């Protein structure tokens, strides 16, 4: 079905950039119209009606008017500010990573993305208050990759297709999953994966987030799981997300 000339929708702001002297080009993610790029006219004016309503990572109700070359953000009203994501640098860096991944793994014009919108909204809420942001990010990564068709195989060897034994394994970015020591004899370009990190990823992949809250994870398992997921994402996107470097720099300053 063709898009209507104008429509109202909930939206979360993924990114923005200045246009001209007073406008902003914003990338919005919506539940039923997917990712939308729209021009917010006058958004940088001190007295503009959109000023303060198109901040990064905020949720808003918007009215969008379709254009021949570029849509226009006709009306916008902030619904949820998610202030900690802009007031605390580490949480802001995490939100930047979350937004970039969704932006990179989706295309403008796709519709019926209610599942991804709900995941994004819930993740930003969790980042505002979570004590363990790493756990929030691992859940988000695995849920997002599952939704867009890149679910990593963590239950059986992707080479032998045999169940995994409780020992250290390997991970193949190219094959999209865990490789057993036996399977490792028949393939290359593998990343070592210890049993504690594998257990963490498997648990996060199959467990609803509310049941993960309070989970105690060793720093070593956390760091290894993060390195593996960053590596897998980098392989899929064919380059590292810019926000990963930002997140690392922020952590070094803590």
Explained architecture:
- By secondary structure, the protein is of the alpha+beta class.
- 37% of the residues lie in helices and 22% in strands.
- The chain contains seven helices and eight strands.
- The protein has a five-stranded mixed barrel.
- 34% of the residues are buried.
- The model has no long low-confidence stretch (mean pLDDT 92).
Give the CATH architecture of the largest domain.
Up-down Bundle
N/C terminus separation: 50 Å
Count of individual helical segments? 7
Characterize the biggest β-sheet: 5 strands, mixed, barrel
Main β-sheet, spatial strand arrangement: 1-2-3-5-4
**What is the top-level CATH class of the largest domain?**
Mainly Alpha
**CATH superfamily annotation of the largest domain:** Recombination protein O, C-terminal domain
- How many domains comprise the coordinates? 2
Helical content class: 25-40%
Residue fraction in strands = 15-25%
Mean pLDDT: 92
């Amino acid at each position: 079905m063709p898009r209507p000339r104008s429509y109202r929708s909930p939206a979360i702001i993924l990114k923005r950039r200045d246009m001209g002297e007073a406008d902003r080009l914003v990338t919005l993610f919506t539940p039923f119209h997917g990712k939308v790029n729209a021009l917010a006219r006058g958004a940088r004016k001190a007295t503009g009606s959109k000023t303060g309503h198109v901040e990064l990572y905020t949720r808003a109700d918007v009215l969008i008017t379709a254009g021949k070359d570029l849509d226009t953000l006709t009306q916008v009203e902030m619904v949820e500010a998610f202030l900690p994501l802009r007031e605390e640098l580490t949480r802001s860096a995490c939100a930047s990573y979350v937004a970039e991944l969704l932006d990179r793994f989706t295309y403008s014009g796709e519709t019926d993305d209610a599942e991804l919108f709900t995941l994004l909204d819930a993740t930003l809420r969790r980042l505002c208050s979570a004590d363990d942001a790493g756990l929030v990010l691992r859940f988000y990564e695995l849920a997002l990759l599952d939704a867009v068709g890149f679910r990593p195989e963590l239950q059986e060897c992707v080479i032998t297709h045999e169940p995994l034994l409780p020992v250290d394994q390997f991970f193949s970015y190219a094959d999209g999953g865990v490789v057993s020591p036996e399977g490792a004899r028949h393939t290359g370009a593998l990343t070592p994966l210890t049993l504690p990190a594998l257990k963490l990823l498997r648990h996060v992949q199959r467990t609803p987030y509310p049941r993960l809250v309070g989970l105690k994870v060793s720093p070593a398992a956390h760091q290894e799981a993060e390195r593996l997921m960053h590596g897998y994402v980098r392989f899929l996107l064919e380059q590292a997300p810019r926000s990963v470097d930002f997140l690392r720099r922020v952590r070094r300053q803590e």
